[in-house]
Amino acid sequence: MTTQVPAAPQAQKPLILAVDDEASNLQLLRQILQDHYRLLFAKDAARALELARQERPNLVLMDVMMPGMTGHEACAILKSDPRTASIPVIFVTALTDTDDELRGFDAGGVDYITKPVSPPIVRARVRTHLSLVRMEELKESRLEIVQRLGLAAEYKDNETGMHVIRMSHYSRLLGIAAGMSEAQADDLLHAAPMHDVGKIGIPDRILQKPGPLDPDEWTIMKSHATIGADIIGDHPHGMLALARNIALSHHEKWDGSGYPNGLAGEDIPIEGRICAIADVFDALTSERPYKKAWPVQEAVDLLVKQRGVQFDPRLVDLFVAQLPAICAIKEKWAEVQSELKVGDTKSGEMKAGEEKAGEAKAPVAAQTAAMPVAQAA
Predict the structure, then answer these.
(1) 355 forms bridges with which residues in the sheet?
(2) 184 and 60 housed in the same domain
(3) In this predicted model, what pLDDT tens digit does every residue of 269-327 receive, in sequence order?
(4) Nearest-5° angle of CA 298, CA 302, CA 305?
(5) Taking the model in full, what pTM does it have?
């Protein structure tokens, strides 16, 4: 007995825009695709651009040789418009020359189907590129959710979300200086805001305690690194894998005295080593109701003092070498306290959970003659 699977409601089917100046070609595409997709048709590029902006189709099948404007030209216009730039364009053409294909890819096309078309090939190419778009959308949605959790954790432990923005830009700059490609550094930029996402799982009584934590509380506080890694989850590669490494390793120290795993030296992932420097620098140089901002040079002096102890010495040197660009980022994303304060009642209040058993974002009285290392916990 064969079970019939109900067809998806028409409104749920992907919308495809087919563009060709030959009515017979449009009719053929209709026959090939109408059972599985909603369809729009245009007989010239100008009308196609109009429909694309109005209807936002999921995919465009574009003829190349059309009167008035070629498909390559129309594709370039689509890709230059933020409203339509993400729509994949597949060229359907009788042109088979390699140079023509290269022009299409340069214009922003994702694939070529050669006329006369084969129905199975058309369906397969359309299905493949719609699946790729869907996968990218799911990836971006998941990433946005996790990043928002990171921002929520920041609001729980800070007055604003500007810290994660600044430290992520510092991290990107340092990543490039350390030899990362632009793409790798961009991944770092987007992953870094999740470094403290695990604070979502720390009780407020600990996170907002207005004084040093006792040993049991400090043990719980340190668990935010592993909680963050668990929230982000295991991923074999990509930005979320990077984010997990950062959450888990940005409190490790070069000399092996950090947490949660006591990693040392280059056993600490480079993304964790980078974010550790960016995190501490921004924490020190940012004003909060419970502390004044450290001067930039004093913060740099502390980083230099801790090179080879808390921080990767090579990365500290690279950070210092990039200081003018770092300060430009700091200025760009400067916090305007008058806009961020809810009221004057918060002034003078101790920041929740900042003085944490000798590891604090703000300078605190040392129990020994040495200054305690300021650390964004």
Answers:
(1) 360
(2) no
(3) 999 999 999 999 999 998 876 678 999 999 999 999 999 999 999 999 999 999 999 99
(4) 135
(5) 0.62
